[in-house]
Design goal:
This protein has 274 residues and is of the alpha+beta class. The chain is 19% helix and 38% strand. The chain has helices at residues 2-19, 75-80, 161-167, 253-273, and strands spanning 27-29, 32-34, 46-58, 88-102, 105-106, 119-130, 135-136, 141-147, 171-187, 190-201, 212-220, 237-245. Helix 1 runs antiparallel to helix 4.
């Protein structure tokens, strides 16, 4: 009797041990190292910072390889289309960028938060601009890509059409759906925006709880910060921002299978006992 009880206790203990997901810091989430105990973001444990380049195109260029980078409109023509009405302008916002910090790991400290020394990049587009400087996000999209090294090619700032393609040649780490996008201050020539996203797919999607991100970013179309907008400029200068979310531990499918096998063993033992 005591031997059977010990066997049951051992089976249960092993089952619970296997079922507990290993989520020690730093954790490999889809090729990206994330510390689930990171506290600098308050209640969130994913805080990131990034640089990016954005531009406006005449028409939605989301379907092109370079998102219309090669035919970007001047910011002067974009500003000239603004008349304060709610009518749509012919211009759409597109852009690409790269994360340089995830939690405490930062390029500035010589850290690599992508397995294999790769890069974490992102792209967005299909954002319609209205004449009152509000955005139409009905066809907007955004993706975060993980490109594991050592052969990574994107470098900031974006300087040619090839760079745009390099920013999008990794595996989709997060697929994002725009929920909101608006200016906190400034305007299309020099402004700060806030956005929120639902996470709808990607390698890391199941690790986020809730499945959402918040985003703040600023960019200006001037030679340097504080100078007047250069009306002939096609691409933003000094674009930077942050994205914040929260992760959770998710058992691997193999772990769940082992858990099921362990529970079946306990059930089988109980039936024999009866």
């Amino acid at each position: 009797m005591h031997a059977m009880l010990k066997k049951l206790a051992l089976t249960t203990a092993l089952t619970l041990t296997v079922a507990a997901p290993a989520f020690a810091a730093p954790t490999n989430i889809g090729g990206v190292l994330i510390d689930p105990d990171y506290v600098d973001a308050g209640e969130n444990d994913f805080i990131s910072q990034f640089n990016f380049t954005q531009w406006y195109t005449s028409g939605d260029q989301s379907g092109t390889a370079d998102l219309g980078y090669g035919s970007a409109s001047t910011i002067g023509s974009v500003l000239a289309s603004l008349d304060g009405s709610t009518n749509p302008t012919p211009y759409y916002l597109q852009g690409v960028g790269e994360f340089y910090r995830v939690n405490a790991l930062s390029y500035a400290n010589g850290d690599s938060f992508v397995i294999g020394g790769g890069e974490l990049t992102f792209a967005f587009g299909g954002i319609g601009l209205n004449a009152d400087q509000s955005f139409d996000i009905s066809n907007a999209w955004a993706y975060v890509y993980v490109d594991q090294g050592p052969s990574t090619d994107y470098t900031h700032p974006t300087s040619n059409s090839g760079e745009v393609a390099f920013a999008m040649d990794g595996n989709v780490w997060l697929e994002l759906e725009f929920v909101s996008l608006s200016f906190l201050s400034g305007d299309v020539g020099d402004g700060n925006v806030s956005a929120s996203f639902n996470i709808t797919g990607g390698l890391a999607a199941d690790y986020f709880d809730p499945k959402s991100l918040t985003y703040n970013a600023s960019a200006f179309f001037a030679a340097s910060s504080g100078l007047p907008v250069d009306l002939n400029r096609q691409y933003s200068n000094g674009g930077n921002g942050s994205a914040i979310g929260n992760t959770q531990a998710v058992p691997e499918p193999a772990t769940l299978a082992l858990l099921g096998a362990g529970l079946l063993g306990v059930v089988g033992f109980s039936r024999r006992k009866i």
